[in-house]
Each structure stands twice: as structure tokens, then as C-alpha cells.
Amino acid sequence: MRNLDATFSALSDATRRAILSRLATGEATVMELARPFAMSQPAVSRHLRVLEEAGLITRRVDGAKRHCRLAAHSISEIDQWLDVLRKALEKNYDRLDRVLAFQAQVRKENP
Predict the structure, then answer these.
(1) Do the Cβ atoms of 47 and 15 come closer than 8 Å?
(2) Which residues contact 40 (CB under 8 A, 6 or more apart)?
(3) Is the pTM of this model over 0.85?
(4) Fewer CB within 10 Å, N- or C-terminus of the chain?
């Protein structure tokens, strides 16, 4: 798994999350990604570099255009990590359900 610190650091910025949301609809050029933001193209490029270094996007050059897309493997790595947490929480909730069911049974038997 890639460095999760870099991944979550990249995700901590609202602009980068917005860029990822846009890329979820399909590949886009740097200029297309920069359009909705009140910032320069170099500033957007810095955000893209952070996303690329975190492994969240890939970039390719086609002549003068630079195209970006989501890196699917990185999203699945995040999901795998989150799945570990989900499973731990499910175990905790299952234990809590058993405790509550036991307490309800005791109350039912001893009114």
C-alpha cells in the first residue's frame, strides 16, 4: 500500500477533493480542471502534483495538452484500509448487540 499519510494529506485540501470529484466523471486536461477555480494554472498544477505524488491521479502528455485521470488502484488501496476499520467496527457493534440482548433477556427474566 502506498503511503497513506501522503494520500490523506492530499485529500485534506478542498480544492484537491474538488479536482478528484471532477475526474470521477472522466479524464480532463489541466486547463479544464483549472477553469472552475479562482487560481492560476500553475497553482492548479501544484495541486495536481500533490495528487499525483500521492498516487491518486495519473497524468499523460498529448502534444501541448496534459491529461489527468483518477488512478483506480489508489482508490482501491484506500478502500482496503477503510475495510479493515469497517470490520473492526462491525465486531465492536456485534459485541455490543450481544451485551444488549443479554441485558434485555435478564430484565425480561427478572422484572
Answers:
(1) yes
(2) 34
(3) no
(4) C
